[in-house]
Amino acid sequence: VPELPEVETTVRDLRQMLIGRRFKGVTFQDWERMFATHPPTVMSQLIKGEEVTGLTRRAKYVVIELTNGKSLVFHRKMSGNLFYRHTEDELEKYTHIIFGFEDESELRFSDLRKFGRVYLFLDEKEKLDHFAKLGPEPLEDSFDFAHFNAVLSKRKGALKPLLLDQTLVVGLGNIYANEALFVSGLHPLRRAETLTEAEKQKLFLAIRQVLEKGIENRGTSLSDYLDGNGQKGSNQEHLFVHFKKKGEPCETCGTPIEIMRVGQRSTYMCPTCQPLSSGQ
DNA sequence: GGCATCCTGACC
DNA sequence: GGTCAGGATGCC
Predict the structure, then answer these.
(1) What percent of chain A has pLDDT above 70?
(2) How far apart are CA A280 and CA A271, in angstroms?
(3) Is the pLDDT of residue A246 over 90?
(4) Is A188 labeled as catalytic in the residue annotation?
(5) How far does Cα A188 stand from its chain's mean position?
(6) Which residue in A39, A150, A178, A267 has a CA-CA distance of 20 to 30 Å to A104?
(7) Which of these is catalytic: A21, A58, A60, A127?
(8) Does residue A155 reach within 7 angstroms of strand B, measured from its CB?
(9) pTM for the whole thing?
Protein backbone atom coordinates (compact mmCIF):
# COMPACT_ATOMS: atom_id res chain seq x y z
CA VAL A 1 0.00 0.00 0.00
CA PRO A 2 2.43 2.57 0.99
CA GLU A 3 4.11 4.29 -1.90
CA LEU A 4 6.72 7.03 -1.59
CA PRO A 5 4.45 9.69 -0.02
CA GLU A 6 3.08 7.32 2.60
CA VAL A 7 6.53 6.01 3.50
CA GLU A 8 7.96 9.54 3.61
CA THR A 9 5.14 10.69 5.91
CA THR A 10 5.70 7.77 8.26
CA VAL A 11 9.45 8.35 8.34
CA ARG A 12 8.98 12.02 9.21
CA ASP A 13 6.55 11.11 11.99
CA LEU A 14 8.74 8.40 13.47
CA ARG A 15 11.87 10.53 13.24
CA GLN A 16 10.39 12.91 15.82
CA MET A 17 9.61 10.07 18.20
CA LEU A 18 12.35 7.45 17.85
CA ILE A 19 15.66 9.26 17.69
CA GLY A 20 17.71 8.73 20.81
CA ARG A 21 15.69 5.78 22.07
CA ARG A 22 17.49 2.56 22.98
CA PHE A 23 16.12 -0.84 21.99
CA LYS A 24 15.38 -3.41 24.65
CA GLY A 25 14.42 -6.24 22.29
CA VAL A 26 11.93 -7.74 19.91
CA THR A 27 8.63 -9.35 20.82
CA PHE A 28 7.39 -11.66 18.17
CA GLN A 29 3.66 -12.30 18.02
CA ASP A 30 3.33 -14.68 15.09
CA TRP A 31 4.33 -15.16 11.48
CA GLU A 32 8.07 -15.56 11.59
CA ARG A 33 8.15 -15.23 7.81
CA MET A 34 8.13 -11.45 8.21
CA PHE A 35 11.70 -11.63 9.52
CA ALA A 36 13.75 -11.46 6.36
CA THR A 37 17.31 -11.57 7.68
CA HIS A 38 17.37 -13.10 11.19
CA PRO A 39 15.00 -15.17 13.33
CA PRO A 40 13.24 -13.14 16.04
CA THR A 41 15.47 -14.20 18.93
CA VAL A 42 18.64 -13.47 16.98
CA MET A 43 17.37 -10.09 15.83
CA SER A 44 16.38 -9.28 19.37
CA GLN A 45 19.91 -10.02 20.61
CA LEU A 46 21.45 -7.96 17.83
CA ILE A 47 19.42 -4.78 18.38
CA LYS A 48 19.35 -4.91 22.19
CA GLY A 49 21.21 -1.90 23.55
CA GLU A 50 21.47 -0.13 20.19
CA GLU A 51 20.22 3.43 19.97
CA VAL A 52 18.26 5.02 17.11
CA THR A 53 20.47 7.63 15.46
CA GLY A 54 18.35 8.54 12.45
CA LEU A 55 15.44 7.70 10.18
CA THR A 56 15.49 7.87 6.42
CA ARG A 57 13.56 6.54 3.45
CA ARG A 58 14.97 4.69 0.47
CA ALA A 59 12.36 3.96 -2.21
CA LYS A 60 9.46 2.45 -0.23
CA TYR A 61 11.67 1.23 2.61
CA VAL A 62 11.71 2.76 6.09
CA VAL A 63 15.33 2.82 7.28
CA ILE A 64 16.07 3.14 11.00
CA GLU A 65 19.74 3.84 11.55
CA LEU A 66 21.22 2.40 14.73
CA THR A 67 24.47 2.77 16.62
CA ASN A 68 27.39 0.57 15.55
CA GLY A 69 26.49 0.87 11.88
CA LYS A 70 23.42 -1.33 12.09
CA SER A 71 20.12 -0.52 10.40
CA LEU A 72 16.62 -1.84 10.92
CA VAL A 73 14.75 -1.71 7.63
CA PHE A 74 11.06 -2.22 6.87
CA HIS A 75 9.13 -2.83 3.69
CA ARG A 76 5.39 -2.63 4.23
CA LYS A 77 4.29 -4.07 0.88
CA MET A 78 0.49 -3.85 0.60
CA SER A 79 -0.93 -3.42 4.08
CA GLY A 80 1.88 -2.92 6.58
CA ASN A 81 1.89 -0.08 9.09
CA LEU A 82 4.37 1.14 11.70
CA PHE A 83 3.08 2.71 14.90
CA TYR A 84 4.89 4.33 17.78
CA ARG A 85 3.07 3.51 21.01
CA HIS A 86 3.44 3.07 24.75
CA THR A 87 3.59 -0.48 26.09
CA GLU A 88 0.29 0.00 27.89
CA ASP A 89 -1.58 1.16 24.78
CA GLU A 90 -4.04 -1.31 23.38
CA LEU A 91 -2.57 -3.46 20.65
CA GLU A 92 -3.75 -2.74 17.12
CA LYS A 93 -5.24 -5.60 15.17
CA TYR A 94 -2.76 -7.49 12.96
CA THR A 95 0.26 -6.51 15.07
CA HIS A 96 2.93 -9.10 14.35
CA ILE A 97 6.15 -7.67 15.71
CA ILE A 98 6.89 -5.27 18.58
CA PHE A 99 10.24 -3.52 18.94
CA GLY A 100 10.51 -2.44 22.56
CA PHE A 101 12.55 0.51 23.85
CA GLU A 102 14.09 0.81 27.30
CA ASP A 103 11.63 3.57 28.25
CA GLU A 104 8.55 1.33 27.85
CA SER A 105 7.58 2.80 24.52
CA GLU A 106 7.60 0.67 21.39
CA LEU A 107 7.49 0.48 17.62
CA ARG A 108 4.80 -1.88 16.32
CA PHE A 109 4.69 -3.51 12.92
CA SER A 110 1.14 -4.41 11.96
CA ASP A 111 0.17 -5.97 8.66
CA LEU A 112 -3.15 -7.50 7.66
CA ARG A 113 -1.80 -9.34 4.66
CA LYS A 114 1.54 -10.36 6.19
CA PHE A 115 3.51 -9.43 3.06
CA GLY A 116 5.60 -6.91 5.00
CA ARG A 117 9.21 -7.68 5.86
CA VAL A 118 11.77 -6.49 8.41
CA TYR A 119 15.50 -6.61 7.77
CA LEU A 120 18.43 -6.03 10.06
CA PHE A 121 21.63 -5.04 8.31
CA LEU A 122 24.78 -5.16 10.40
CA ASP A 123 26.79 -2.67 8.41
CA GLU A 124 26.58 -0.16 5.58
CA LYS A 125 27.64 -2.68 2.96
CA GLU A 126 24.86 -5.15 3.77
CA LYS A 127 22.33 -2.36 3.48
CA LEU A 128 23.70 -0.95 0.22
CA ASP A 129 23.83 -4.43 -1.30
CA HIS A 130 20.16 -4.88 -0.53
CA PHE A 131 19.34 -1.57 -2.20
CA ALA A 132 21.72 -2.08 -5.11
CA LYS A 133 19.12 -2.59 -7.83
CA LEU A 134 16.93 0.37 -6.90
CA GLY A 135 16.66 3.27 -9.30
CA PRO A 136 17.05 6.96 -8.45
CA GLU A 137 14.98 8.89 -5.92
CA PRO A 138 12.56 11.09 -7.91
CA LEU A 139 12.47 13.93 -5.39
CA GLU A 140 16.20 14.36 -4.98
CA ASP A 141 17.92 17.27 -6.69
CA SER A 142 20.30 14.89 -8.44
CA PHE A 143 17.32 13.42 -10.30
CA ASP A 144 16.97 16.07 -12.97
CA PHE A 145 15.38 15.79 -16.40
CA ALA A 146 18.65 14.87 -18.10
CA HIS A 147 18.94 11.91 -15.75
CA PHE A 148 15.32 10.82 -16.27
CA ASN A 149 15.64 11.20 -20.03
CA ALA A 150 18.78 9.07 -19.98
CA VAL A 151 17.26 6.19 -17.99
CA LEU A 152 13.94 6.28 -19.85
CA SER A 153 15.61 6.29 -23.26
CA LYS A 154 17.10 2.89 -22.51
CA ARG A 155 13.69 1.33 -21.94
CA LYS A 156 10.94 0.05 -24.20
CA GLY A 157 7.32 -0.90 -23.69
CA ALA A 158 4.14 0.41 -22.10
CA LEU A 159 4.59 3.30 -19.70
CA LYS A 160 2.43 2.01 -16.86
CA PRO A 161 4.51 -1.10 -16.05
CA LEU A 162 7.68 0.94 -16.51
CA LEU A 163 6.63 3.47 -13.88
CA LEU A 164 6.03 0.62 -11.43
CA ASP A 165 9.49 -0.80 -12.11
CA GLN A 166 11.65 0.29 -9.18
CA THR A 167 14.85 0.01 -11.21
CA LEU A 168 13.78 2.89 -13.47
CA VAL A 169 12.77 5.30 -10.74
CA VAL A 170 11.67 4.41 -7.21
CA GLY A 171 8.62 5.32 -5.17
CA LEU A 172 5.73 5.07 -7.60
CA GLY A 173 3.07 2.44 -7.00
CA ASN A 174 -0.28 1.89 -8.61
CA ILE A 175 -1.94 5.06 -7.28
CA TYR A 176 0.79 7.55 -8.14
CA ALA A 177 1.64 5.88 -11.45
CA ASN A 178 -2.00 6.29 -12.53
CA GLU A 179 -2.03 9.88 -11.32
CA ALA A 180 1.29 10.77 -12.97
CA LEU A 181 0.12 9.43 -16.33
CA PHE A 182 -3.08 11.46 -16.09
CA VAL A 183 -1.24 14.66 -15.16
CA SER A 184 1.19 14.20 -18.03
CA GLY A 185 -1.63 13.42 -20.49
CA LEU A 186 -0.10 10.09 -21.50
CA HIS A 187 -1.95 6.83 -22.12
CA PRO A 188 -0.86 3.95 -19.82
CA LEU A 189 -0.19 1.76 -22.88
CA ARG A 190 1.83 4.39 -24.68
CA ARG A 191 5.21 2.92 -25.51
CA ALA A 192 8.23 4.58 -23.95
CA GLU A 193 10.31 4.44 -27.12
CA THR A 194 7.77 6.63 -28.96
CA LEU A 195 7.83 9.54 -26.52
CA THR A 196 8.93 12.94 -27.70
CA GLU A 197 11.29 15.05 -25.64
CA ALA A 198 8.38 17.29 -24.63
CA GLU A 199 6.32 14.32 -23.47
CA LYS A 200 9.18 12.97 -21.40
CA GLN A 201 9.53 16.40 -19.85
CA LYS A 202 5.82 16.37 -18.95
CA LEU A 203 6.10 12.92 -17.42
CA PHE A 204 9.15 13.92 -15.41
CA LEU A 205 7.36 16.92 -13.95
CA ALA A 206 4.14 14.96 -13.34
CA ILE A 207 5.95 12.28 -11.32
CA ARG A 208 7.38 14.88 -8.99
CA GLN A 209 4.13 16.81 -8.82
CA VAL A 210 1.92 13.90 -7.77
CA LEU A 211 4.44 12.60 -5.24
CA GLU A 212 4.93 16.03 -3.67
CA LYS A 213 1.19 16.54 -3.51
CA GLY A 214 0.85 13.13 -1.83
CA ILE A 215 3.38 14.15 0.82
CA GLU A 216 1.65 17.51 1.42
CA ASN A 217 -1.58 15.60 2.02
CA ARG A 218 0.18 13.10 4.33
CA GLY A 219 -0.44 10.16 2.02
CA THR A 220 -3.40 8.37 0.46
CA SER A 221 -5.56 6.32 2.84
CA LEU A 222 -7.85 4.22 0.68
CA SER A 223 -8.04 1.17 2.93
CA ASP A 224 -5.18 0.31 5.25
CA TYR A 225 -2.64 3.10 5.25
CA LEU A 226 -2.15 4.98 8.52
CA ASP A 227 0.76 7.22 9.56
CA GLY A 228 3.13 6.68 12.49
CA ASN A 229 0.47 7.94 14.90
CA GLY A 230 -2.32 5.82 13.45
CA GLN A 231 -3.94 8.73 11.57
CA LYS A 232 -5.23 8.70 8.00
CA GLY A 233 -3.81 10.87 5.25
CA SER A 234 -6.06 12.99 3.04
CA ASN A 235 -4.69 12.54 -0.46
CA GLN A 236 -7.55 10.15 -1.34
CA GLU A 237 -9.73 13.28 -1.48
CA HIS A 238 -7.51 14.84 -4.13
CA LEU A 239 -6.97 12.07 -6.69
CA PHE A 240 -7.63 12.80 -10.37
CA VAL A 241 -8.37 9.30 -11.65
CA HIS A 242 -7.23 6.56 -9.28
CA PHE A 243 -10.03 4.66 -7.52
CA LYS A 244 -12.78 6.53 -9.34
CA LYS A 245 -15.91 4.57 -10.13
CA LYS A 246 -16.22 3.35 -13.69
CA GLY A 247 -17.93 6.06 -15.74
CA GLU A 248 -17.38 8.83 -13.22
CA PRO A 249 -16.64 12.02 -15.17
CA CYS A 250 -13.08 13.27 -15.54
CA GLU A 251 -12.75 16.49 -13.53
CA THR A 252 -10.95 18.17 -16.41
CA CYS A 253 -13.12 17.30 -19.41
CA GLY A 254 -16.15 15.34 -18.20
CA THR A 255 -15.36 12.21 -20.18
CA PRO A 256 -16.18 9.02 -18.22
CA ILE A 257 -13.13 7.56 -16.51
CA GLU A 258 -12.10 4.16 -17.88
CA ILE A 259 -10.72 1.28 -15.88
CA MET A 260 -8.45 -1.15 -17.65
CA ARG A 261 -6.15 -3.94 -16.60
CA VAL A 262 -2.48 -3.36 -17.33
CA GLY A 263 0.13 -5.75 -16.00
CA GLN A 264 -2.29 -7.23 -13.46
CA ARG A 265 -3.02 -3.81 -11.96
CA SER A 266 -6.16 -1.70 -12.19
CA THR A 267 -5.40 1.26 -14.34
CA TYR A 268 -7.65 4.33 -14.21
CA MET A 269 -7.48 6.83 -17.01
CA CYS A 270 -9.32 9.47 -19.02
CA PRO A 271 -9.51 8.50 -22.70
CA THR A 272 -9.82 12.15 -23.73
CA CYS A 273 -7.03 13.63 -21.61
CA GLN A 274 -4.77 10.62 -22.26
CA PRO A 275 -5.15 9.73 -25.94
CA LEU A 276 -3.18 6.88 -27.44
CA SER A 277 -2.62 8.96 -30.53
CA SER A 278 0.88 9.96 -31.55
CA GLY A 279 3.12 6.96 -32.07
CA GLN A 280 1.19 4.47 -29.87
C1' DG B 1 6.31 -8.54 -21.04
C1' DG B 2 2.62 -11.84 -18.71
C1' DC B 3 1.39 -14.83 -14.88
C1' DA B 4 1.26 -16.99 -10.25
C1' DT B 5 2.49 -16.33 -5.62
C1' DC B 6 2.81 -14.66 -0.88
C1' DC B 7 -2.01 -13.29 2.70
C1' DT B 8 -6.62 -11.51 4.65
C1' DG B 9 -10.88 -9.19 4.21
C1' DA B 10 -14.42 -6.64 1.76
C1' DC B 11 -17.62 -6.56 -1.68
C1' DC B 12 -20.80 -8.35 -5.42
C1' DG C 1 -17.56 -18.27 -4.57
C1' DG C 2 -15.08 -15.11 -7.43
C1' DT C 3 -12.67 -10.82 -7.72
C1' DC C 4 -10.01 -7.26 -6.12
C1' DA C 5 -6.71 -4.40 -2.96
C1' DG C 6 -0.91 1.30 -2.11
C1' DG C 7 4.09 -4.60 -3.79
C1' DA C 8 7.67 -7.29 -5.56
C1' DT C 9 9.79 -11.68 -7.08
C1' DG C 10 10.60 -15.51 -9.77
C1' DC C 11 9.06 -18.46 -13.42
C1' DC C 12 8.35 -18.91 -18.63
Answers:
(1) 99
(2) 13
(3) no
(4) no
(5) 20
(6) A39
(7) A60
(8) yes
(9) 0.97
Residue A138, classified by CB atoms within 10 Å of its CB into exposed (0-12), middle (13-18) or buried (19+), is: buried
Give the CA-to-C1' distance from A264 to C1 in angstroms. Answer: 21
Q: Is A249 a catalytic residue?
A: no
A265 is catalytic: yes
Closest residue by C-alpha to C1' distance, nucleotide B2: A263
Task: Say if residue A66 is exposed, middle or buried (CB neighbours under 10 Å; 0-12, 13-18, 19+).
Answer: buried
A38 touches strand B (CB under 7 A): no
In the residue annotation, A2 being an active-site residue is answered as yes
- Per-residue model confidence (pLDDT) at position A253: 96
Within 10 angstroms of residue A29's Cβ, the number of other Cβ atoms is 15
Question: Would the pLDDT of A92 be above 50?
Answer: yes
> Which nucleotide minimizes the distance between its C1' and the CA of A172?
C6
Judging by beta carbons within 10 Å of its beta carbon (0-12, 13-18, 19+), is residue A196 exposed, middle or buried?
Answer: exposed
Convert the pLDDT of each residue in A178-198 to its tens digit.
Answer: 999 999 999 999 999 999 999
Using the CB atom, is residue A263 less than 7 Å from strand B?
yes
Q: Is the CB of A113 under 7 A from strand B?
A: yes
pLDDT the model gives residue A279: 42
Give the C-alpha distances (Å, rounded to integers) separating A234 from A3, A206, A208, A226. Answer: 14, 19, 18, 10
CA of A208 to C1' of B4 (A): 32
pLDDT tens-digit readout, A209-225: 999 999 999 999 998 89
